[in-house]
């Protein structure tokens, strides 16, 4: 995370007596919160492959769950109004300290008007965060022309199709099935579309 943010997060870990773990990359989530159970306390995990800004946003997201649990236990929705209020409140110190670059600060401020269950589902914020990723061999699906053949991590090959609302309809060339992909899915282009 950005070095200026670490003292605040360290205070939160200490204050809430939280087990904070940096996890290996998980395809289905960037972070996770587990409420106290039996003799175990709060647990938060955040993926190790995130850039420093995405790591911080995910960490604050998970701490907002912890605070919401402390206030309401399981009587409210995980990403309901109570969580949204806590997330906005917990992001405030980082925005005040001007930790984020201006483009990212604007995207986060916009996102905070109505935060969703995942920063990944907000395309504007997700694009802004991905600008700070280390360079990779992969590209985002939205950057490829239609009909481009691409592969994903597990090696399956797809052909990019039309966009349906937010997602792209893609045909799997290995089995003929149709899958919907986020525009921000990281893929490896194999051949250019026609």
Overview of the structural elements:
This protein is of the alpha+beta class and about 190 residues long. The chain is about 35% helix and about 20% strand. It contains five helices and nine strands. It has a six-stranded antiparallel beta sheet, with no helix packed on it. β2 and β3 form a beta hairpin. α4 runs antiparallel to α5. The radius of gyration is 19 Å and the shape is elongated.
The major sheet is characterized as:
6 strands, antiparallel
User: Could you tell me the number of beta strands?
Assistant: 9
Strand percentage lies at 15-25%
- Average pLDDT confidence is 89
Distance N to C terminus: 42 Å
Shape: elongated
Number of helices: 5
Broad structural category: alpha+beta
Radius of gyration: 19 Å
Low-confidence runs of at least 5 consecutive residues: none
**Helix/strand order:** HEEEHHHHEEEEEE
- In which order are the strands of the major sheet placed? 4-9-5-6-7-8
Helix content: 25-40%
Which features does this protein show?
6-stranded antiparallel sheet; 9 strands
What is this entry, summarized?
This protein is α+β, with helices and mostly antiparallel strands.
What secondary-structure arrangement, pairings included, does this model have?
Layout: H1 6-15, E1 19-23, E2 31-34, E3 43-47, H2 52-72, H3 81-96, H4 102-111, H5 123-130, E4 139-140, E5 149-151, E6 157-164, E7 167-172, E8 178-181, E9 186-191
Parallel strand pairs: 1-3
Antiparallel strand pairs: 2-3, 4-9, 5-6, 5-9, 6-7, 7-8
């Amino acid at each position: 995370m950005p070095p200026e943010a670490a003292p605040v997060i360290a205070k939160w870990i200490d204050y809430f007596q939280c087990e904070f773990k940096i996890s290996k990359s998980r395809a289905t989530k960037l972070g996770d919160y587990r409420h106290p159970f039996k003799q175990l306390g709060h647990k938060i995990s955040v993926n190790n492959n995130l850039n420093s800004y995405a790591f911080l946003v995910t960490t604050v997201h998970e701490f907002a769950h912890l605070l919401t649990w402390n206030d309401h236990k399981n009587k409210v929705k995980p990403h309901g109004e109570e969580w949204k209020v806590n997330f906005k409140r917990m992001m405030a110190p980082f925005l005040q300290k001007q930790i984020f670059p201006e483009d990212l600060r604007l995207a986060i401020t916009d996102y905070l008007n109505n935060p969703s269950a995942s920063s990944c589902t907000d395309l504007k914020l997700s694009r802004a965060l991905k600008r700070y990723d280390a360079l990779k061999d992969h590209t985002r699906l939205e950057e490829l022309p239609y009909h481009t053949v691409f592969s994903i991590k597990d090696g399956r090959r797809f052909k990019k199709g039309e966009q349906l609302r937010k997602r792209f309809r893609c045909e799997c060339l290995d089995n003929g099935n149709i899958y919907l992909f986020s525009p921000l899915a990281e893929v490896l282009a194999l051949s250019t579309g026609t």
